[in-house]
Write a structure and sequence with these properties.
By secondary structure, this protein is mainly α. The protein has five helices and three strands; from the N terminus they run H-H-H-H-H-E-E-E. The chain has a domain of about 110 residues. About 70% of the residues lie in helices and about 10% in strands. The protein has a three-stranded antiparallel β-sheet with strand order 2-1-3, with no helix packed on it.
């Protein structure tokens, strides 16, 4: 539908453009001008790629131009003019379609470029976000490392304090042992005690008195339960 509208509009424009400047010219000159104009437009269309973008219109333009030339050669000036006008209109249609294709291609290229730029911008933003996250993670790792170092330092300090306390306790124990040994070395030995017990027996008969002397080293002794007379002598000799 669009192609038909473009063709009708260009056909009317081409007919008006050819008819107006040559209104006073004879049909032969008008036919020659129309054919020359059609050839120029077909050449322009082909240079713009109309053979690829609008091959049908380009082929019909060539066919109409050939008919115009044939009518002109046969002396049919008015049919030649009409065929030349039709060829120009077909060429204009092909030019318009080619131009539209180029405009669409440019618009698509701009859209692609814009999409590429947007994608690149998003990638840059994502990369920046990742960099920020990486920096945050690095900072957190550094803080954790510092905390671990502080904990290790505290543990080392506690271990050193415990070692020093153990060393002090060992030193105190050694000093206590040395003091006990020194005290034991300075304490004099217990004195030697000698106890002499003398027992005198009494008898009803007049027998000579018998004295028995017992020497012992006991500290205390119990006196014999008899009528004998017992004398105890204790001698203490320091060591």
């Amino acid at each position: 539908m669009l192609r038909q509208t473009i063709f009708a509009t260009l056909l009317a424009s081409s007919a008006l453009a050819i008819a107006m400047p040559s209104a006073a010219a004879n049909p032969k000159d008008r036919a020659r001008e129309a054919i020359a104009a059609a050839e120029a437009k077909i050449h322009t269309a082909e240079s713009l790629g109309a053979g690829t973008d609008s091959p049908r219109d380009t082929a019909e333009a060539h066919a109409a131009l050939a008919s115009a030339k044939e009518d002109f050669a046969s002396g049919h000036k008015e049919p030649a003019i009409q065929e030349a006008i039709r060829a120009s209109a077909l060429a204009d249609t092909a030019i318009g379609i080619s131009q539209q294709h180029k405009n669409n291609a440019l618009a698509a290229a701009r859209d692609d470029q814009r999409a590429t730029v947007d994608a690149a911008r998003d990638q840059v933003a994502a990369a920046q976000g990742q960099a920020v996250n990486a920096q945050d993670q690095a900072a957190a790792a550094q803080q954790q490392a510092a905390a671990s170092q502080q904990q290790a330092a505290d543990a080392n300090a506690r271990a050193e304090a415990a070692r020093q306390s153990a060393a002090a306790s060992a030193a105190d124990a050694a000093a206590a042992r040395n003091a006990a040994a020194l005290t034991a070395a300075q304490t004099p030995p217990a004195p030697k005690v000698e106890t002499t017990v003398t027992t005198e027996h009494s008898a009803v008969t007049h027998h000579p008195t018998r004295r028995v002397t017992h020497r012992t080293t006991t500290t205390t002794g119990a006196a014999p339960a008899s009528t004998d007379q017992v004398t105890t002598t204790t001698k203490v000799t320091p060591q």
